[in-house]
Amino acid sequence: MRGAAVIGLALLPATVQVPASAADVQATKATTTAAAPAAVTARTSGSGSYRYWAFWERKGKDGNAAWSYATQGPSVLRPEDGAVLGFRFALSEDSKDAEKPRGEAEFAAVCGGTEAERGRKRIALAIDFGTPAHAPRGESPPRRRTTCAQVDEDATAADALADVAKPLRYNSDALLCAIDGYPERGCGEQIESGDDDKGTGQDDTPEDNGAGAEDDAGDDSSNGFGSATGVAAGLAAVAALSFATVRRSRRRG
Questions:
Q1: Has residue 195 been placed in a domain?
Q2: How far lies 182's CA from each of 41, 53, 105, 247, in Å?
Q3: What is the 8-class DSSP label of residue 182?
Q4: Which of 40, 96, 198, 250 could connect to 16 by a Cys-Cys bridge, CB 3.0–4.6 Å?
Q5: Please, which residues bridge with residue 149 across strands?
Q6: For position 195, what pLDDT does the model report?
Q7: Separation of alpha carbons 49 and 116, rounded Å
Q8: 120-128 and 84-92 as β-strands: parallel, antiparallel, unpaired?
Q9: What local confidence, expressed as pLDDT, does residue 245 receive?
């Protein structure tokens, strides 16, 4: 049974990569978090999801572009001109099950009206504030939107975000807590499956400044808890196997 417990803990998110931007956090703190992204350590008391901003990169061209979970934090990644980045606020158990930004986000559609400038780069950003089911109690998510940031050539993804979506909020560990002031409270907190901590508003808010009609259904059919069912089933199977192993070893002894 101890083995099952250890495996169960391993399935929980060890870190959430959302480091701070030097533009919005004290310079010394931003420096210390540049090499290693700030993290939310998984709690072991009970099961549930974490509410946080997930960071994505859109990779591929033409009709094959798709969202990919970023392997570097926003304050580490230095995107090139023409990059498309996404931020999605949602509940999820780990990066494998994190909710992606809904809809499409093509660079030409988002930044086509922004002229290129020498010494600067254009970054297309998709900011998805999520659904009321994932919002803190009493809050309503703003409309998701796409926008174009034009920043210095050596700017990070966090710098690009700060250019177009202030105010940003960080905690004392330089963890990104809010974009454009949302949410007003909370930061990477764990939400138990039975908690009645939900916001208000319609489930599918239309996109603001978007690039056309999109599929608003996105990944929200599970309301963030679909992965919990799979994890629970897996843990139950592991526990059963561990129990059977212990019984066999006792009989042999």
A1: yes
A2: 22, 10, 21, 52
A3: B
A4: 40
A5: 123
A6: 57
A7: 41
A8: parallel
A9: 42
Full domain range(s) for residue 115: 15-222
CA atoms within 13 A on the CB side of 19: 25
- Select from 218, 217, 223, 226 the least CA-distant residue to 86: 218
Asked, for residue 74, whether it belongs to a domain, the answer is yes
Query: In the block, which residue shows the tokens 């998984």?
Result: 42
Instruction: Fill in the DSSP letter of residue 46.
Output: S
Q: What is the pLDDT of residue 91?
A: 93
Instruction: Name 91's bridge partners.
Output: 51
Flag whether pLDDT at 216 surpasses 70. no
Higher pLDDT, 136 or 195: 136
Cis peptide before 167 (omega within 30 of 0): yes
Q: In whole angstroms, what is the distance from residue 182 CA to residue 171 CA?
A: 14
Which residues are paired to 117 by β-bridges?
none
Continuous H helices in the chain = 2-11, 27-34, 107-111, 157-164, 226-252
Q: How many CB atoms lie within 10 A of CB 68?
A: 13
Decide if 230 is inside a domain: no
- Specify the number of domains making up the chain: 1
Over residues 159-174, the pLDDT tens digits come to 999 999 999 998 888 8
